[in-house]
User: Which sequence fits this backbone?
């Protein structure tokens, strides 16, 4: 979402016109009405016959995009890579033990440090007693930031990994580099020449994956590799020692991931999360830009051979029994749920845990197939041998609130009923409901209740689910449903404005169904609860650290006619203009009867949220003693926030919206930035007290990490900023350590 | 006397400006507050707005009553705010902080309004 989005441009010159504009998301058109001719019957279709076929005539209206069967636009296959061949998954060679299976004490070998993605480090040099002496050890510039004339779509979100003598990371535009972990000096850099046009909603690269080959002998190039998925949909493998492309992987070190996706344009689909490698299979997911069209490119999940880059299997939701690559003019099923979060691998069970999102067109569900309805906004455990789901646990039924899962699952052991331990996974959600599941079968370990939810709603032919799942065994990371008295502001004037805005919307608590006649309030909002920062878990103390948001949204479905008037067009429409609708904001949802208008539930004149603070929280949960909250407090100060976007400079811990996760260490510290006050802080794991903080050169919307080099502990954070969080963009990785004399 | 007939001191001009501000806030409270009340929301704003409009009008007329009406509205605001949210500083901030600041300014105008009133009385006696 952009700052300018839906900011009312009409100047209200008197106080008196303000209340009239309180729900000025748009003026009710008074015309249009539900275009029932395009609504296919009650509920969901029993087959997938709505997807356009090759023989479906192209619609020749101003707002129509190309047919899904149209050839891919030039530049979609950024490197002009030839198609990759397939191989039998049974021929995948036995994987050697990976660095991430059991990282060296001072290493951080994977996005969440190890295969369990705990974000826990056994390092203990930095403690609550000495953390206040932390100093900047070095700063590294990635070189990726918006150049003059480019819209700011940057949010690097990068977490470096550290293996042995190198710190490996990517820039926001996917250049890969190895740094000296002591000095920050660049050892090598591999530029991939990604174009600005390839940036989807956000230029982000959360990280890279370290892989040790069983086929290339030690000492040879590409025995150890760095793998990366890119915004322009390439899977790249480079040699960890030199940064040179691995010739034996794909075509000269690259695989074209646009293969089989059908018609697309640059920026429509992209990879931002590091792909996990499970038993020799590198599993890739990708983000599909939200809100564009019902028949957007597929959200297919695919497995490739980590040694050769050859295709192994696909999980295409609407072709459940066909795991092969489409041939000829065919493509993977359009509009299926996509997954953009970091996935978690499980070598022992041969599974990859895929946090899924919604089918394309997030806010309208009548055109989704029963297969899609089973697996959207869910954890799907795919068998890495076949690509078939072994189990599915759904966190929202028939999601029309953009509650796609942004977090990565964390693996842990839970005490079982008769003394033995149960292999478990923790799945945070945007709803603030945290599900703890048995990873063998997906059954809840802590109780989950199906509770009545508002249904059927008001959208013709699109009934809501009568129940939704609630994780009653875990503390809810949310505040109670909003009331009029929760409205806030600087003065009674803006508070009154928000009270009217609250009363003018439909709101019956969580899962308020979408409406067309007036806006509805969505709380929890689509920024969470928990978003992509995920959680950190200290297996020694059993303490789980979760940061989360209290950011309601103000949504409204608009008729196709109104959407056209608002200029909402899908990204692949010939008339599409950047800013005319995009992910996380207003969307055309072309191919459905409605468009969607979404803003934060805020006062659009002051830029302040309508609800009272806090807007962001951090919570410690004791997983060993009954999932009790150990401590909980607002996260983030008001120093860089205020009305009209002005920084107040106040040290008041108001609790700001936050994006990015935490690290927990054996030294008893939690490191986290995430908040929009552009600070990184250390929190005492056991008391919740903030014991150190430092101001970053940009927004700290990234997961920090910690490592040891040259006998000392370092803490690294990418201060890349975030365009949607409105924090300053920078290209700086900032790394802290205790001063030398401490050694 | 620095004042000649028809001219005003700076303090009197500032008092009138304050009266205009209170009148505008009062009008906003009445109009938007009525909207809110009709939507089923709090009736505090429309009631307080009526007091503020009266306060603003009397201040513009140079009547001390205007200032006392504002202070009355302020007292009503505090009682309502404490009833609605209790002693929660974060929640009292939007409800009572601004009105109290304005109230301090209004209290400072009482001597000015008294002077204006007495001058008018004197003029009336001529």
Assistant:
């Amino acid at each position: 979402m952009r700052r300018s989005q839906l900011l009312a441009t009409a100047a209200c010159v008197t106080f008196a016109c303000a209340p009239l504009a309180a729900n000025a998301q748009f003026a009710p058109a008074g015309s249009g009405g539900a275009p029932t001719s395009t609504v296919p019957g009650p509920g969901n279709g029993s087959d997938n016959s709505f997807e356009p076929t090759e023989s479906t005539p192209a619609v020749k209206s101003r707002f129509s995009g190309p047919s899904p069967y149209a050839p891919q636009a030039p530049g979609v296959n950024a490197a002009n890579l030839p198609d990759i061949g397939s191989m039998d998954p049974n021929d995948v060679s036995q994987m050697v033990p990976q660095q991430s299976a059991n990282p060296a004490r001072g290493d951080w070998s994977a996005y969440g440090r190890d295969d369990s993605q705990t974000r826990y480090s056994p390092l203990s040099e930095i403690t609550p007693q000495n953390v206040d002496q932390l100093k900047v050890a070095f700063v590294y510039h990635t070189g990726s930031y918006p150049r003059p004339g480019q819209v700011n779509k940057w949010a690097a979100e990068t977490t470096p990994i550290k293996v042995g003598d190198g710190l490996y990371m990517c820039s926001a535009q996917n250049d890969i580099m190895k740094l000296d972990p002591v000095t920050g000096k660049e050892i090598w850099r591999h530029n991939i020449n990604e174009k600005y046009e390839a940036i989807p909603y956000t230029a982000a690269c959360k990280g890279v994956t370290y892989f040790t080959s069983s086929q290339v002998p030690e000492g040879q190039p590409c025995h150890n590799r760095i793998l990366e998925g890119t915004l322009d949909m390439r899977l790249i493998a480079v040699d960890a020692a030199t940064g040179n492309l691995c010739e034996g992987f794909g075509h000269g070190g690259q695989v074209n991931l646009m293969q089989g996706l059908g018609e697309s344009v640059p920026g429509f689909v992209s990879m931002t999360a590091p792909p996990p490698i499970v038993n020799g299979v590198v599993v890739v997911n990708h983000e599909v830009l939200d809100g564009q069209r019902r028949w957007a490119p597929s959200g297919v999940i695919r497995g490739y051979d980590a040694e050769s880059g050859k295709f192994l299997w696909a999980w295409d939701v609407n072709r459940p029994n066909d795991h092969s690559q489409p041939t000829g003019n065919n493509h993977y099923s359009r509009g299926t749920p996509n997954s953009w979060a970091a996935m978690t691998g499980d070598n022992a069970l041969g599974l990859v845990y895929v946090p899924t999102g919604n089918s394309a067109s997030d806010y309208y569900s009548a055109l989704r197939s029963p297969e899609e309805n089973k697996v959207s906004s869910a954890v799907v455990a795919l068998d890495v041998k076949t690509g078939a789901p072994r189990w599915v646990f759904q966190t929202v039924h028939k999601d029309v609130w953009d509650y796609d899962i942004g977090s990565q699952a964390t693996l842990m052991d839970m005490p079982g009923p008769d003394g033995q331990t149960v292999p478990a996974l923790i799945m945070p959600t945007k709803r603030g409901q945290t599900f703890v599941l048995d990873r063998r079968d997906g059954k809840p370990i802590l109780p989950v209740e199906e509770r009545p939810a508002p249904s059927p709603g008001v959208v013709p032919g699109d009934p809501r689910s009568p129940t939704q799942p609630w994780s009653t065994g875990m503390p809810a990371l949310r505040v109670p449903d909003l009331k009029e008295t929760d409205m806030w502001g600087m003065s009674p004037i803006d508070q009154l404005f928000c009270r009217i805005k609250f009363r003018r919307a439909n709101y019956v608590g969580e899962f308020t169904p979408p409406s067309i006649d007036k806006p509805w309030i969505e709380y929890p909002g689509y920024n969470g609860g928990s978003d992509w920062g995920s959680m950190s878990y200290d297996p020694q103390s059993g303490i789980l650290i979760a940061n989360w948001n209290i950011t309601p949204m103000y949504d409204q479905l608009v008729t196709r006619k109104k959407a056209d008037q608002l200029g909402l067009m899908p990204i692949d429409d010939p008339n599409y203009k950047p800013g005319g609708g995009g992910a996380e904001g207003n969307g055309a949802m072309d191919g459905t009867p409605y468009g969607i208008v979404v803003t934060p539930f805020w006062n659009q004149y002051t830029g302040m949220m309508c609800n009272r603070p806090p807007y962001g929280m951090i919570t410690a949960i004791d997983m060993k003693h009954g999932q009790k909250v150990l401590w909980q407090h607002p996260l983030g100060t008001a120093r860089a926030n205020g009305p009209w976007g002005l920084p107040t400079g106040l040290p008041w811990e108001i609790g700001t919206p936050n994006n990015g996760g935490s690290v927990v260490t054996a030294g008893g510290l939690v490191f986290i930035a995430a908040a929009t006050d552009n600070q990184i802080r250390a929190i005492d794991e056991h008391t919740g007290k903030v014991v150190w903080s430092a101001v970053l050169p940009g927004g700290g919307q990234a997961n920090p990490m910690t490592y040891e080099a040259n006998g000392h502990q370092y803490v690294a954070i990418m201060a890349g900023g975030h365009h949607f969080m409105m924090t300053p963009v920078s290209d700086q990785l900032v790394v802290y350590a205790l001063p030398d004399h401490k050694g | 006397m620095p004042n000649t007939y028809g001219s005003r001191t700076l303090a009197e001009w500032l008092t009138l400006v304050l009266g205009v501000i209170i009148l505008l806030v009062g009008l906003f409270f009445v109009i938007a507050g009525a909207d809110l009340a009709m939507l089923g929301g709090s009736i505090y704003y429309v009631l307080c707005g009526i007091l503020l409009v009266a306060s603003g009008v009397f201040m513009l007329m140079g009547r001390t009553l205007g200032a006392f009406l504002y202070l009355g509205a302020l007292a009503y605001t505090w009682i309502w705010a404490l009833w609605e949210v209790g002693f929660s500083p974060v929640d009292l901030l939007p409800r009572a902080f601004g009105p109290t600041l304005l109230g301090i300014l209004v209290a400072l105008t009482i001597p000015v309004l008294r002077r204006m009133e007495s001058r008018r009385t004197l003029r009336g006696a001529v």
Notes: DSSP finds four helices and 41 strands in chain A.
